[in-house]
Structure formats: structure tokens, C-alpha cells
Amino acid sequence: MPQHEYIESHRKRFGYRLDYHEKKRKKESRETHERSKKAKKLIGLKAKFYHKQRHAEKIQMKTTSKMQEKRNTKQKNDAKTPQGAVPSYLLDREGQTRQKYFPT
Q1: Region entry Disordered: which residue ranges (predicted)?
Q2: How does residue 86 score in pLDDT terms, banded at 50, 70 and 90?
Q3: What is the CA radius of gyration of the chain?
Q4: Given this model, what pLDDT does residue 70 score?
Q5: What are the angstrom distances between the C-alpha of 81 and each of 62, 70, 78?
Q6: For 8-17, 21-30, 67-76, 92-101, which range has the lowest pLDDT when averaged over its residues?
Q7: What percent of the chain has pLDDT over 70?
């Protein structure tokens, strides 16, 4: 067994701490505040590179969210509809026999 895998082997045997997932969730939620503070404090060339990196990350997030949204929405298939088909709300109502019935 390699010497650097002792943490993974311990987690495999004993699992995570009871509050591990809660701490991880809170740390991730605080990360956005820390990143915004860092963005405000940086000046000069470091700020320029940092903003370029953040901009690239935001573009990546937007493209992935658009792809997921496009995958989840239903799209109309034009191949199934015949040429010159008329929608049901434009058809004549002559063939319909449903009417209100008032007993006398």
C-alpha cells in the first residue's frame, strides 16, 4: 500500500466525521463571499488576470446551464407533422354532436 493513501484507507474503514458534510456545505457557501472580497481588494495586473479567469468561469457555467436547459426542454419534431396539416382549433365544428342538454 502506498504511503500517501492513509486518509482514503481510514475513510474507507471508519467513514466521515458526523458533521463533515454540513461543514463542507457551509464552507462552499462562504466561498462566494470570500471570492467577491478578493475581487474587490485586488489591484493591477493580478486583478486583471483574476477577472479574466472569473469571466471565463462564468461563461463556462452559462454554457453548461444552457446545454442542460436545452436537453430538458421538449422540442417539436417537424418530421412527424404532415405537410399542410391544420391545427385542431381551426377545424370546422360541424361534425361535433356535443351540445348542452336542457330538460323540459
Answers
A1: 18-39, 51-104
A2: confident
A3: 30
A4: 82
A5: 33, 22, 6
A6: 92-101
A7: 78
Nine-digit cell string for 67: 446545454
In angstroms, rounded to a whole number, what is the distance separating the alpha carbons of residues 42 and 46? 6
Instruction: Note the residue count of the chain.
Output: 104
CB 38 within 8 A of CB 47: no
| Backbone phi, psi, residue 91, to 5° | -70, 155
User: Grid coordinates 422540442 are at which residue?
Assistant: 75
Distance of CA 55 to the CA centre of its chain: 18
Full-model pTM: 0.51
Mapped onto helix, strand or coil, the DSSP state of residue 24 is helix
